[in-house]
Amino acid sequence: MSDRILVQQEDFDVATEYARLSDNLETGAIVSFIGKVRNFNQNSDVTGLHLEHYPAMTQLSLEKLVAEAHERWPIQGCTLIHRVGDLTINDQIVLILVASAHRKAAFAACEFLIDELKTSAPFWKKERLSDGSLRWVTPS
Amino acid sequence: MKVLFFAQTRELVGVDELIIDAQDVTAQQLRDALAERGDKWQLALRDSALLVAVNQCLVPWNTPLSANDEVAFFPPVTGG
């Protein structure tokens, strides 16, 4: 089973990605994380997001994280899709799927991937307000 | 070397890319030199949370730079 790492503007389909990753008779657990664009500061003025990234570094840093997950846990495969560009409230923004023989490794690797992605992958969010202006999101 | 800026850092300095002729400097020394370019540069590059990547990898500030490196300055990331 191969890993699948994508940075794209288009949306992703969870069922399709799940079917691709679960096509392995040795897989006993698939853990998923889906990040969505929320109404950021509980502020109804926020209508969406613009996501900037550093293209030359993004793919490399995601591949490095997935390689590290393989080194640390007995996992069979990962799917990691991160969207960039303009997104609106309720859109899916990131998908992480991790397949393993057992749930423990799948949970641990999935949590590792999303936590590390949030501190080391070069993506920056900018909130779009209802008056059309944009405001950078700072890490919490 | 090629120097890139992203997100708030890019907006503050007003450019996304520079070609710089610098030798025997660390990432910190390049940062200090660029900060001398003006108030906006000072503000962007003195930010204590600023990060630096060399050849697409995050590195510590004492990393030595080579003539053909791609150096990128940016604020903390907020993806996911």
Q: Major beta sheet of chain A, specifics? A: 4 strands, mixed
Percentage of residues in strands of chain B: 15-25%
Distance between the termini of chain A: 36 Å
End-to-end separation of chain B in angstroms reads 30 Å
**What is the chains' assembly state?**
heterodimer
Largest interface: A-B, 27 and 17 residues
Please provide a written account of the structure.
- The complex is a heterodimer of chains A (140) and B (80).
- By secondary structure, chain A is α+β, with helices and mostly antiparallel strands.
- In chain A, 31% of the residues lie in helices and 38% in strands.
- Chain A is built from three helices and eight strands; from the N terminus they run βαββαβββαββ.
- Chain A has helices at 14-21, 55-72, 103-120, and strands at residues 4-8, 29-36, 46-53, 75-83, 85-88, 92-100, 123-129, 134-136.
- In chain A, the strands form two sheets. Chain A has a four-stranded mixed sheet with strand order 1-4-6-2, with helices on both faces. A four-stranded antiparallel sheet of chain A has the order 5-3-7-8.
- The radius of gyration of chain A is 16 Å and the shape is elongated.
- The termini of chain A are far apart.
- The model of chain A has no long low-confidence stretch (mean pLDDT 94).
- By secondary structure, chain B is an alpha+beta fold.
- Helix content of chain B is 29%, strand content 22%.
- Chain B has a five-stranded mixed sheet with strand order 2-1-5-3-4.
- In chain B, 34% of the residues are buried.
- The mean pLDDT of chain B is 96.
Ordered list of secondary-structure elements with their pairings:
The complex is a heterodimer of chains A (140) and B (80).
Chain A: E1 4-8, H1 14-21, E2 29-36, E3 46-53, H2 55-72, E4 75-83, E5 85-88, E6 92-100, H3 103-120, E7 123-129, E8 134-136
Chain B: E1 2-5, H1 7-13, E2 17-19, H2 27-35, H3 39-45, E3 51-54, E4 57-58, E5 70-74
Parallel strand pairs in B: 1-5
Antiparallel strand pairs in B: 1-2, 3-4, 3-5
Helix pairs in contact in B: 1-3, 2-3
